[in-house]
Amino acid sequence: MLIMLRERLLGAALWLPLLALLIIADAFPQLLGLPLLAVVLVVAIMGGEELGRLLQAKGWEPPRYSGAMMAALPPLFLYFHHRDYNDYVLALLTLAIVLDVLLIALGLISDAARRRWAALPVFVVTAAGGLYIGATLSFLLFLRQLGEGAPLPANVWPVILALLLAWATDTAAFLGGRYFGQHPLWPRLSPRKTWEGLLLGMVGAVLVMVLFSLTPPGQPLGVVGGFWLGAVLGAAGHLGDLLESAFKRWMGAKDSGNLLRGHGGILDAFDSLFLVAPALYYSLLLLVK
């Protein structure tokens, strides 16, 4: 137990500082929002690649890099939302989008030319999974916009809040399940998840939101509002985790990869964030902004 916890903490210590540095760098308008875009793109592309590898391990043959390319499309498109751009940045991003779509189209044309029509449903699954990864992560770009107007570098607070919520939910659920877990949540889907882990994961999210309600951006929410919103966002994080577990069970895999020490793959580490980010964005849009 202690070994697994130590591995998770060591793994987080390796990549969290870099992630925090890039998000703080995004606070400065001179960088045109590119640091956060880079974070979202890297996570989305690597998650899409893991998706493709899971499909290949099951014996399916999606077009090469199709998962990664589909995951990259939503962040690239959404980056243009309400932002002024340097012409060179605009040209490079446009070129990236055009090449992305072109490569996907060439992969489909190649399969069709060889009469490999069985690849079409595989591509549909790959495309849907890639778009899910890219689109949900893209809400970090929308969250970033909600912080505009706050003093530097505090204007990135919504993005940091989303990451803290996902991290608190995952970590509290992990500790709750390992130390107190007695009642399986859904054995056929994920044997290791328990009701105790679910409860403590939601407690972790509630604590984060209650503390947020005591800060200037969260004061309109109030402590009671922070409590209930934390419970909702904790549930969203668990749902994201369960969806990824269901997909891994379908693929016959235990983890999505082994890139992140103690966490598995990109999809394992960010599965809660996939639904926490959009849920937090719409909640803040309605309740705080």
Your description of this structure?
This protein is mostly helical and 289 residues long. Helix content is 73%, strand content 3%. It has helices at residues 2-25, 34-57, 66-78, 87-113, 119-137, 139-146, 157-180, 195-213, 222-251, 266-287; strands at residues 184-186, 190-194. Strands 1-2 form a two-stranded antiparallel sheet. Helix 8 runs antiparallel to helix 9 (222-251). The radius of gyration is 20 Å and the shape is globular. It starts with a helix and ends with a helix.
The Cα radius of gyration reads 20 Å
Largest beta sheet, briefly?
Answer: 2 strands, antiparallel
- Helix segment count? 10
Q: Given the helix and strand composition, which structural class is it?
A: mainly alpha
Percent helix range: over 70%
Beta content comes to under 5%
The total count of strands amounts to 2
- Overall shape: globular
Side-by-side strand order of the widest sheet: 1-2
Low-confidence stretches: none
Overall mean confidence score, pLDDT: 83
Number of domains: 2
What gap, in angstroms, lies between the N and C termini?
A: 42 Å
Q: SSE order in H/E notation?
A: HHHHHHHEEHHH
